[in-house]
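Components:
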Amino acid sequence: MSMRVLLIGGGGREHALGWKLVQSPRVTEIMSLPGNPGLAQLGSVIEGIEPTDVGAVAAFAKAQQIDLVVVGPEAPLAAGIVDALNSFGVPAFGPTRAAARLESSKTFAKQVMDRASVPTAPWGSFDQPDEAKTFLQAQTAPYVIKADGLAAGKGVLVTEDLAAGEAWIDDCLSGRFGDERVLIEAFLAGPELSIFAVCDGTDAVLLDPARDYKRLRNDDRGPNTGGMGAFSPVDDLPPGIMEFTLDQVVRPVLSAMAEDGSPYIGFLYVGYVLTSEGPSVLEFNCRLGDPETQVVLPRLETDLLDLIEAALAGDIRKSRVDWSPETAVNVVLAAEGYPEAPVTGTRLSRLERAEDVIIFHGGTNYDDAGQVVTSGGRVLSVVAIDRTADDARARCYRAVDKLRWPGMQYRSDIAR
Ligand code: GLY
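Structure:
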């Protein structure tokens, strides 16, 4: 059956999802909402509807007789976009609002982890400042304090300073991040690792892991970002981590969610800290990672539509997932001023010069003259795929050199 697909989102992750989906022989049309100039090369982009206006998105998808909606970012999922689409009879891939609480409420995620016996740091959750501060004072530094809800990566404080931690509790409970609950947990030391699962409500298959670089500058210096680059595959995985993830984390969590009446269907992002005592889950996200998706999907040889349809049919366990043995490297080109205040409106005029790489658009838009300009922090993902990591990295950075614009920021140590 031919398929008309609507993709929700407009970042580098969604451009990579669209790029992969149009390779399916059954996808005849792809629309994106809101999309970006990269996605506009694959199909029409829909303007004038906010992805979080879930009723409007559902009415649009119904009117357009869309066969499948694939949702990239967390905000529309947390707002209930899948519930709205399903109520209009439109098939949609992603968790319902209740299931997306695995990302949209850190307290809910911890409760599910405890019920599913998933290893995670000891925690406490509070809506009263005095109780939260008493709990904090009994912890040892560094203190980890998180706003409970979605905060676009800005709701977490890790500090050695108890007074700063107490002030952060007041900030979180004042509703600064849109909710009035705070989570305090023990600090976990060790490298991070993210693994993605495609879940059908009771079972899952895992995607090949990628390593992300969160800090703005080389050697993990500078402020935290959404991710400045990634590579896949990762060759220093702890032994048995994939089996552990499926058997000790993903499947037990799916069982707990199903028992709860909120079966989880969609991509699930498992974020670990690899401690000296073993892997410990730091967080779940109800979506794929960005910029990890941009290196995972180019290596995926299986048709992504087949995986999504198998998950929607509750039949993922029979799916084979095949991978290219090559390495993919993604260097993110960020706008001047990112992450605090990205400069928008800078023209990107040399995109055609970067040959033999894939360029996924993230923070781009058109200006009044129809030129592609910067419109957000993480502007482009430059992805090279080659036989070895060295070859892919060298090819990627040759392309980066050709794409420079004034103020462009990037890390030169991705996959080094
Ligand atoms: N790269 C981290 C994230 O997508 O949350």
